[in-house]
Amino acid sequence: MRAVIKIGSSLLTTGNSLDESRIGALGTDISEVHSMGNEVIIVSSGAVAAGMKKLGLKRKPSDIRHKQAAASVGQSTLMWAYEKSFSIHGKKVAQILLTRDAFYDRVRYINAKNTILTLLDYNIIPVINENDSVAIDEIKFGDNDQLASLVAGLVDADRLVMLSDVDGLYTRDPRRYKGAGLIPVVEKITPEIEALSGGAGSLVGTGGMYSKVLAAKRAMQCGIRVNIINGKAPGLLMSLFQGNPCGTEFKPREERIPARKGWIAFGLRARSSIMVDNGARDAILSRGKSLLPSGIISVEGSFGAGDAVYCTDRGGNRFAKGLTNYSAEEVGKLKGLRTSEIEK
């Protein structure tokens, strides 16, 4: 089994510094999972938190400049902690730093995938983090839950495990309501499920349960099984990989999305859209057809040939995303025309 395990700042830190004893415990648990014959990729937060202590900061910086400084200082500390915790068990780790734009370009996307898969061939555990020291808002993932779901799709993972400081998704916030009940299985992420997961993150992290549910939604659509479990519970990760029910499990769709379609759907960022008529909408959704000029009503925004764009219905609702062969200006001229008229 190929698994992506996401570890958040709330598990890796105590106060405003790294919790090396916790990292050691995680190293033991993940090493056991790896020794079962599983391929493991870690997506880890913690660089900014690790740097906060070295810089004497008590709270996470709010501006990008100081966040980048903290990440630069903390990244080596974080990796050294992982190196120590895994080497005890005879495991080797490798560091990979990514920014969001690595997923925009197809060549860079494939190169990132090949690097990770080659490390797995060498029986090495990749540790992936966002490159916070250079990332700006334009190329940030938002949080590492989203990065983890993108990486899971990138490497065609069988399972995404998000380690949390709670047992899973609850009917209410268990830290505020004693009667909150754990939801063991989620078949489909509905607006009601998203509403249940609403909440703020911690002082050192950027995510929360809502972020994890959104990441699970993306992975499920790629055909990847997702689990949210308590990363502080000893032996729970091993129990999960032994086939026991743990935390909250999100069931994947039965058919996996082909790799290229997954890249278009979740890797690329679309900023513009094309409004289409009902006939074109039905052809795309029901029969998987490409969009023809005759079904185009209007163009929203600016884009070039090869860019990703959303398809919207007459009400402005997004229902598909794809790559366009034409620029916005060209589409504006071609809209409503039949193929035979274009060829003339």
Q: Explain this structure to me?
A:
By secondary structure, the protein is α/β, with parallel strands linked by helices. The chain has two domains: 2-260, Carbamate kinase (3-Layer(aba) Sandwich); 270-343, Roll (Archaeosine Trna-guanine Transglycosylase, Chain: A, domain 4), CATH 2.30.130.10. 40% of the residues lie in helices and 19% in strands. The protein contains 13 helices and 14 strands. The protein has an eight-stranded mixed β-sheet with strand order 5-6-4-1-7-9-10-8, with helices on both faces. A four-stranded mixed β-sheet has the order 12-11-13-14. A hairpin with a 5-residue loop joins β13 (308-312) and β14. It is globular and about 70 Å long. The termini are far apart. Residues 199-207 have low confidence and may be disordered. It comes from hydrothermal vent metagenome. Its EC number is 2.7.2.11. This is Glutamate 5-kinase / RNA-binding C-terminal domain PUA. It holds the Pfam family AA_kinase. One of its GO terms (molecular function) is ATP binding.
Secondary-structure map:
Blueprint: E1 2-7, H1 9-12, E2 13-14, E3 17-18, H2 20-35, E4 39-44, H3 47-55, H4 64-87, E5 93-98, H5 106-121, E6 125-130, H6 144-154, E7 159-164, E8 185-186, H7 191-196, H8 209-221, E9 225-230, H9 236-241, E10 248-250, H10 259-267, E11 272-276, H11 278-287, E12 296-300, E13 308-312, E14 318-323, H12 328-334, H13 339-343
Parallel strand pairs: 1-4, 1-7, 4-6, 5-6, 7-9, 8-10, 11-13
Antiparallel strand pairs: 2-3, 9-10, 11-12, 13-14
